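Exercise: predict the fold of this chain.
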Amino acid sequence: MTTRADGRGLAGLAALLADPTRAGFCLALLDGRAWTAGELARSAGVAASTASDHLTRLVRGGLLAEERQGRHRYVRLADPAAAQLVEDLAARAPAPAAPPRTMRAASADAALAYARTCYDHLAGRLGVLLHDALLARGVLDRTGGLALTPTGLSWLADLGVPVEPLRAARRPLVRDCLDWTERRPHLAGALGAALCARLLDLGWTVRGTGRSLRLTPAGRDALAEALALDPAALAPPARDSGPARA
């Protein structure tokens, strides 16, 4: 029988993310990859021994899962629910008070804000645009709660995304996920993950640095056609670094 968490349990979970280093590790792991303890230590600028202690706490608390290959220890977010928790909290966190101090940092922030992975689905401005366009095109409908429509089934078939394996997944087929930069929902769930993977497979998007994704010029035109949008609507804002070269 499942029991409700009590106040102490909730406080313990909150304490796991109350440390900036542990919170930073979880944000880095939203790229969906497994990282070594050393990689996370370098990303946070802490000693390897410090990182190891923090990671042990996160694994014991159920937010991370680990596996060992030889002498290497790899960690990843435990599951999509853990990723959702981190992303939801990030969306409600106050924005940084100070702007990036260097042009490189500003460019990296702009790339993440435009398009990135949120664990295994598409986030950022492009993710929100995709979410809104799927609703406008009738692929999704939220009359009785967010759902895939019969029109959506045909649209996915044309895109080469099989639906039956998604229906058999242990996670919701479609789900809103509050975007932490746009503060509006992007598409999560099994379908959100499948669409993100399909865009990468087609070469419409390519991976950038860290979690960032870039929309190729060919991908911009193809995605705009699939969504019945003007390609200009999918372009990054002028301050972003722009789409990748084909």
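Check your answer against the key: The chain has eleven helices and eleven strands.
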